[in-house]
Amino acid sequence: MVVKKICMMGAFAVGKTSLVRRFVHSIFSESYQTTIGVMISKKKLTLAEQEFELIIWDLEGRDEFTDFRSSYLRGVSGVIFVVDVTRPHTLTVVRQLREEVRNHIGEIPALILLNKADLADQWRLDAATLELLEDEGCTLLHTSAKTGANVEEGFLALLRSMTA
Amino acid sequence: MGKVVMEGDIQDRIPPATPVVPASADRQSAEAVKRLRSLILGADYESTIRRARDADETRRVAEVLAEAIRLRSQQDKGVQSALAPAIDDVLDTSIRRDPVKLARVISPIIGPSIRAAVRTALADMVESLNRILERSISPQSWWWRVQAWRAGMPFGQFVLLRTLQFRVEQVLLIHRDSGILLQAETAHGVEMRDPQLVSAMLTAIKDFVSDSFRSGNDAADLNRVRFGDRLLLIDVGPQAVIAAVVLGDPPPGLATQLSTTLEQFHRIFSQPLADFSGDRAPFQPASGLLQDCITEQIRADRTPAKPWLALSAIALVVIVAVLFGWRQWRIEQQRADIVQQLRASADYVVLGSEGDGRHLRVSLLSRFGAPSPQNAQALAQQSGIELELDMAPVAMNADDLLLPYLERRYGLGSQVSAQLQDGVLRIAGPLSAQQLEQISADSWVQGLVRTLDSTQVKIIPPPDQRALDQQHWRELVDTIQHERFYFGEDSPLLDSSEATKAVRMLEQLRELTALAKKLELQHLQILIQGYADSTGTDARNSRLSRDRALELRDFFIAHGVDPGLLTGMGVGSLGASTLTAQQKRFAMLQVIYVMPHD
Questions:
Q1: What is the least distance, in Å, from the CA of A121 to any CA of chain B?
Q2: What angle do CA A83, A85, A86 make, to 5 degrees?
């Protein structure tokens, strides 16, 4: 079995932890996220007859009051950025985070999840910014932690790009 | 033309298999060349060339094979991957075909290991037993039980805390950057929460602490965390981290041992660490390194001594076992003595005995009128054994047998009594003079009886001869009428065994006719009835049954029986009956007569 470390990153309250809770088998107490800024969980996946174990580091939500702990990114194989489609600011945060990740560890497989897709009537993201991200080679995926739509597919998509 | 035989380098002497045809040459020319070559060199030319090329190719591959494997192995694991399934199959087939061969090969390797493991296990068992006993029955252990109860913790855990200097419960080897667990080992009986998550969390905490308390460029790492009775020792290497969970207070040497282990790990697994991309398989051999770190030390509160308590317990068990065995043997002996006592008595014959603990059941034959086996019963009572006697009274000597013999032999009847005492036979009751005379003349009576006392005998007249003859007649008729002569399927003929019965019947018929004359019977007639089974038609069965009766009748006539006495008739099939088909194919005699009144 191959073990991979991935990080979940995004602004505060975009639904990272809800997505993880939808996806994983076992999880450590969520109180750690408020103490040391990370909650760790794991999930086993099978891709092309190969078993993988994803160690998911769910980093605390980024806002103007919290620092980015770059040490948590060490040894990471892929990153999932999460955006709340009802809050345009969360997309800006993801763009900043993406840049910081690049600066710290270089180019690694990444995926942007446009979460809360079930709230289509409250969609507030700028289409031009999304197009720009796609043009930059970012993979975007609409997800909903509430309905579970595309959650597993999102993690599988990242695993595929990590093992490609 | 015969086969073309070639030696040496064929390529040098034989033109190539595919002729070089000039581009300008037409198809006809090429065909002509091909036919010409076939005519000159024969039909085997093409196949011979192919074989020669195959052999040449094989030689060429053989020359470069070893070097090719070595080169490819340096590049990647392609050769191993390709050969692994084939080698697996070969090994599997070889082991299935001759498992003994494999056992012979590996026995020198695993034999010493097994012996060492058994020795260690036995020593551990004695040590463990000693520790359990010490903790279970000593006054100190009872005090500890009270303390454990007051502390609200299990006794075992309290004992561990009091007696253990330290114990390494878990050792983790973690990839430094990713926090991925590379290998882990736990002490026996210790449950480990998901080690992969623990590793990641530990890495996060370590990073958090390092980031939070870093001063300047000082890249200090977390290396010791105390939580309750446990201590987490961490040592950070260039690419991996070793962490050990220790219960109690470890000696300084333990941290050094962890560092040494980490250094060894880096030295041995430098390449897999450099290439690490999440595959933990290459680090499995590190298990042995970590196992060496799983140690414990019992608090040395006294000098090591022989495990007297364990040895005493073992000795006690042996003594109890010996005493129990001796007691069982003693009971067996007592049971055997009782049986022997019964065997020694002339009044009893022991048929068998069975015992279970203090219960003994003896089956025996006892002489008529023999006294109860008091000696054996007294011995049983004395030994505390419950004796059950299963006795069957029988005659054991001539005296016992004489009285039943006289009664049976001379038909003494219920009114006659006979007693034998001190050589005097006393007979009383109604007897005929002839019976008394016969008894006196009996050789057995003469041999056993000194005096025959017949003073109480009442002589009765002998029975009437005619009545005796009539009784004999009735018995004879009854015997004759009960005889059956069986026949084969669809056969009216007597076979040899049935003919023997018919010969015996001749005697009885002669006696019958003589007795009939003596008794002056009238209308004596012997009716022979033939029967058939249910197969066949009624007409056929009727004819067959009649033929069987006539066959028997003819046999008797042929052997001198008066034909006027014999009549044969066929009854046909018996029809519905519980008899088998074979039992239905028979003939029988019926005696018809009129007995004159006296």
A1: 39
A2: 125
d(CA B588, CA B481): 7
Both structure tokens of B548 = 């069987």
Question: What is the total residue count of chain B?
Answer: 598
Could you tell me which residue, B386 or B162, shows the higher pLDDT? Answer: B386
Cβ–Cβ below 8 Å for B196 and A1: no
Nearest CA in chain B to A4: B278
Lowest mean pLDDT among A49-53, A97-101, A137-141, B140-144: B140-144
Which residues from chain A sit within 8 angstroms of residue B204, using beta carbons? 32, 36, 38, 40, 57, 72
- Is B465-594 CATH 3.30.1330.60? yes
Question: b/e map of B338-354 (b: 16 or more CB within 10 Å)?
Answer: bbebbeebebbbbeebe
Mean pLDDT check: name the lowest of B170-174, B188-192, B197-201.
B188-192
pLDDT in tens, A98-114: 999 999 889 999 999 99
User: What fold does the segment set A2-163 form as a domain?
Assistant: Rossmann fold (3.40.50)
Given an 8 Å threshold on Cβ–Cβ distance, is A72 in contact with B210?
Answer: no
**Fold category of B398-460 in CATH:** Alpha-Beta Plaits (3.30.70)
For residue A11, the 8-state DSSP code is: B
DSSP code of residue B281? G
| Calpha distance B387→B302 (Å, rounded) | 59
Q: How far apart are CA B409 and CA B395, in angstroms?
A: 17
Arch. (CATH architecture) of B313-388: 2-Layer Sandwich (3.30)
Question: DSSP letter at B368?
Answer: T
- ipTM rounded to 2 decimals: 0.87
Total-model pTM: 0.45
Q: What is the mean pLDDT of residues B419-438?
A: 86
Kind of pairing, strands B586-594 and B484-486?
A: antiparallel
Measure in Å the smallest separation between the Cα of A154 and chain B Cα atoms: 20
Q: Is the pLDDT of residue B276 over 60?
A: yes
